[in-house]
Amino acid sequence: MRIAMIGTGYVGLVSGACLSDFGHNVVCVDKAEEKIAALKRGEMPIFEPGLADLVDSNVRAGRLTFTTDLAAGVDDADAVFIAVGTPSRRGDGHADLSYVFAAAREIAEHISKPCVIVTKSTVPVGTGDEVERIVREVGAEAWVVSNPEFLREGAAIEDFKRPDRIVIGTEDADAIAVMREVYRPLSLNQAPLMFTGRRTAEIIKYAANAFLATKITFINEISDLCEAVGGDVKDVSRGIGLDNRIGPKFLHAGPGYGGSCFPKDTLALLKTAQDNDVALRVVESVVQVNETRKRAMGRKVIKAVGGDARGKIIGVLGLTFKPNTDDMRDAPSLALIQALQDAGAVVRAYDPEGLEQARPLLKDVEFHGDPYSVAEGADALVIVTEWDEFRALDLKRIASILNTPILVDLRNIYPPEHVERAGLAYTSVGRG
Ligand code: NAD
């Protein structure tokens, strides 16, 4: 099959590379010239484990190419995926659909035969109808399908190749046949292909993200209770997560959710609900609780250093919103560092992959090349993102090089006894 992927970001590049690995001929298109130039040189514009090798092998096999020329990219395609960004619209929290609509128009203007236009970007319910309207207005012939993406950054290739489910929103038999063919190689892995209406598929994506954000926020509030009354949130998570009806995932207490999806998608879902006179009070609370939590984590660190951070040096380990990615979009570290700087602290930081993306976002932060140099002479060390590299730190060494031996672990990656034995005062989350 000939597939065009419009938008070569975290989702488009991974999806394009995986689809080419299935044997399809894929052309990844992006407006960003430097991104396409880098890919043509064999350089990855993002950090995602396994991606460089996957791209390299499929480029060599002649199944994967890159271009800035959308017209050439979509010409003769059987399926054109839209994987452009849908960020929060400045000021009001609605999803900004301008990139999606611009891409749809351009695709419609350049396809040379009837094909399937597949929206993979996360878009509010009804967007597919508008894309279809644009296609008709241009006078092109195409079926418009919703196929939301559920991959997680950091495990994106595995998620794309072994998904829990593939949701396809269309009721058109021809479009269903094309989509079956796109995903046929995955049927070997028995990935459930779920067909439903286009609007329903669009809602599924937002409902899934809102539910996961709710799970995280729920356990974060329970962790506050554990701290107040003396309980261990890790054991609470395990104790409830072993119940099959609940499940163990997304029950890790921490600094609040962030990243490129949950914050913007929960907001956009609320906007859709408001526009339709529907109250989504659970999601409203989730958004509110998560927002206050970010600053609360700043207060937690300040309390750990004695209640006054003015002039203190705070070392931060981990900046990206989660491990195994370089994505800094809405990372909890941003709000935390701002809160610490507002309180007068001097912040230094290290991240295994995120430094390049973090630099322009973090003013007056000193960046270091490893965890020990961050700790040297600092008044406290704070673990914000649970990279593997931070899971087995030489804690005795950390205790000896810190100015004051204080470790704040916002991801609960250490057993308290272990840290205290190394001579560090330890603050974690929800272990009262
Ligand atoms: P991204 O910002 O990394 O990539 C989007 C790319 O689209 C950019 O490179 C941009 O230059 C390009 N682009 C924009 N308009 C274009 C056009 N008209 N023609 C060609 N290229 C164009 O975004 P992302 O993280 O890959 O997310 C894409 C979509 O997928 C979003 O809707 C997001 O919500 C959704 N999603 C993301 C994830 C994730 O983990 N990042 C997971 C599931 C779904």
Number of strands: 14
In the CATH hierarchy, the third-tier topology of the largest domain is known as Rossmann fold
- CATH superfamily label of the largest domain: NAD(P)-binding Rossmann-like Domain
Radius of gyration equals 23 Å
CATH-defined architecture of the largest domain: 3-Layer(aba) Sandwich
Number of helices: 17
Class by helix and strand content? alpha/beta
Poorly predicted segments: none
Distinct bound molecules: nicotinamide-adenine-dinucleotide
Instruction: Assign the CATH class of the largest domain.
Output: Alpha Beta
The description of the largest β-sheet is: 6 strands, parallel
The percent range for strand residues is: 5-15%
Q: Separation of termini?
A: 57 Å
Helix content: 40-55%
Shape: globular
Describe this structure as you would to a colleague.
It is built from 17 helices and 14 strands. With 432 residues, the protein is an alpha/beta fold. It has two domains: 195 residues, 3-Layer(aba) Sandwich (Rossmann fold); 217 residues, NAD(P)-binding Rossmann-like Domain (Rossmann fold), CATH 3.40.50. The strands form three sheets. The chain has a six-stranded parallel sheet with strand order 3-2-1-4-5-6, with helices on both faces.
